[in-house]
Amino acid sequence: SSVFSRRQAWPLDRDRSILAISLAIAAAQSGRRVYYGTLADLIASLEEAQAAGRFGQRLRVLTHPSLLVVDEIGYLPITRTGAMLFFQLMSRRYERASTVLTSNKSFEEWGEIFGDEVMAAALIDRLLHHCHIVNIRGNSYRMRHHTDLWQALHTPASEEANSSPKRRRKRKEVVTS
Prior knowledge:
Helix content is 46%, strand content 17%. By secondary structure, the protein is α/β, with parallel strands linked by helices. Helix 4 (80-93) packs parallel to helix 6. The N and C termini lie far apart (63 Å).
């Protein structure tokens, strides 16, 4: 079965957004309806619709696309209300349409992200029922031309302390007002 036939695709770790966007483009090019947004943007639209008394209508709109891409789960904090609205959306889409979710967090951290361990477990249960997990490891696509910076960002402090000392220039501080 293809990733678009009621399956959940789950890219994790580095460059997941690029993969998710590529899947969305492929789905759109094959004539499927696609909706893409970050979790923060999606929740904001759900909260706005709820405040305006149009939550049911917004839920139907977001349930309809063949593919829903929710990017950047775990990057920004979300409210308890936002988490509940997102759960309702995912419950509505469950076994009806494909969803691609990207996150820099493990499943164990989702209770913290959504502010409710039980709701996170129920959400994960639904998502894992029909999913393909794509766990991407390796250097960031965006950082491919900056390997020295990438290594510096991902070297634990203990390794830096044990590495051979490098000659450093003294920096002059300039104070401006």
